Amino acid sequence: MQPIGVSDDRRVDWGYIYQSYGKLADLKKATAQAVHNRVVVMEQGASADEFGRAATVLSEAARVVSYQDDKEFADLLMAA
Question: How distant, in Å, are the alpha carbons of 33, 65, 77, 78 from that of 57?
């Protein structure tokens, strides 16, 4: 699981996004194709454009879920 936070100015840290992508892509290559053991949890708060761009990059290597509240987050993780 890779958490991605949002700064006070509602932006994501793109250096961290690309670093996370690299780590998750390496894990994807090292595991069987049927294994889906990579999840990115993105904090709510970024603009829709910013969130969409980051999620698009990260979704190539992992499942991306959005953290909104504890109950919904628990349900999303259980489904992952």
Answer: 19, 13, 20, 23
Report pLDDT digits (tens) over 48-73.
899 999 999 999 999 888 877 667 76
Residue 31 in tokens: 């595991």
| DSSP3 helix / strand / coil % (the chain, rounded to 5) | 50, 20, 35
Give residues with Cβ within 8 angstroms of 67, minimum separation 6: 41, 42, 43, 44, 73
pLDDT for position 69: 66
Between the CA of residue 66 and those of 19, 20, 71, 77, what are the distances in Å?
19, 16, 12, 10
Q: What is the pTM of this model?
A: 0.78
